[in-house]
Every structure is written in C-alpha cells, then in structure tokens.
Amino acid sequence: MRRGSFQAGTVDYAAVGATQAPDLMGYPPKGTTPAEASWRLGSGESRFVTSTEQLLGWGAQRGAGLRVEDVRPASGPMYSGVGFDADGNAVQPSRLDDEQRFDADGTPFVGAGATAHVHGRVGGMRADAELRVISLIDEPRRVGFSLGTVGGSVVSGEESFLLEWRDDDEVWFTVRAFDKPTGVLYRLWRPLVKRRRRALFQGYLQAMSPMYATGS
C-alpha cells in the first residue's frame, strides 16, 4: 500500500498508515506488536448513524475512561490528512476535512490533522499521549479514522477505528493497532504492551457496544 506524506515531526514513528495494510497482523512494522479486533454492534442504518456520531465525537476514547483534552483542529494548508480505500490505498482527503463540528461540550469532532491530548489509566496502566489524526474514512457505509502518537506516551505507534454497515445490514466496529514500547518499564517487560492493548480494546468495545450501554 502507499503511505501518506507527512512533515517531519508530525508523529513519532515511521510506518504512517500501516494500520490500513491488509497484512498488518502477519507483517507489522519492524519492532512493533500488532493487534486487531472486531465486534458486531447491531444492524441497520440507525445503528450505523448513531455509532458514527459517537465514534467521531471521541466516544471510544471517552467511553474507555480516557479524558480527551486540548483538541486542536489543523490550521492552514500545512496538513490536509490522508484517506484510505477498502484495500488500504491512499486516496484524496475526505469531505470531513472541510466540516468542523463540535460536541455538546464544545470539543471539536475528529478531523484530519487535528491533535489531541489523551489522559487516563486503562486496566491500571498509563494511557497518556499526544495524538494526531492521520487519516479519515468517510463513505456512505464506512466511517473511521486513524490516530498516531506524537509524544508523551509509554508506547509509539498507531490505532485505527472503523465502522462498517455491511451488505447483510450488520454494523461492525473494528480496531487495529501496532505499537512498540518507549517507556522504561515497558521496554524491560514487553508483555505489558500486550496487556495494555487488551485493556484498551476492551474499553473501546464497552464504549461502542449497545450491549454494555444498556447493561444487557
């Protein structure tokens, strides 16, 4: 697949866009640990629309117990973001790049090139970082985005979040990631990276799944 072109210093890792690669789990970027999980959220257009609003309003992160602060939309022409098609090929930025929306608290929705600070703990482990939105997907039946670490985290890497309203009417939520440790403890004991990732994935599922929201 083709990668996007980024200014030096935009993110703190080299394999930008690799969460979109079909072979991520078999051939992750060198030195990183890949992860992938998918969950059925329900079915129908209403579920897809509701989940889309939640996802683009940082709902997965917030619902996992993280605080999303200091969201700064990209300014000027320095960065327009990268989009990807279903095969992981880079395409022109989506229309979301030109539409700035805000949630009820005034926090900007996800937008290409935006940066945000995420703070909190997941499963007892630190999950603080500065992140940049490196790509957006905005299609009638597929919506999502990718986040790359800029700094301040115990790991370096990328996460992607994708909602799909499939042809069988089911709505699926997929999270893919790769990262490598940067914190001292995580470099000394690499199993912590996988443990942290499992906790994050479980938090995202609980945030997005109607089953957890309704307690059923």
From TrEMBL:
One Pfam family of this chain: DUF1990
Domain called DUF1990: residue spans: 13-73, 109-206
Protein name: DUF1990 family protein
Domain of life: Bacteria
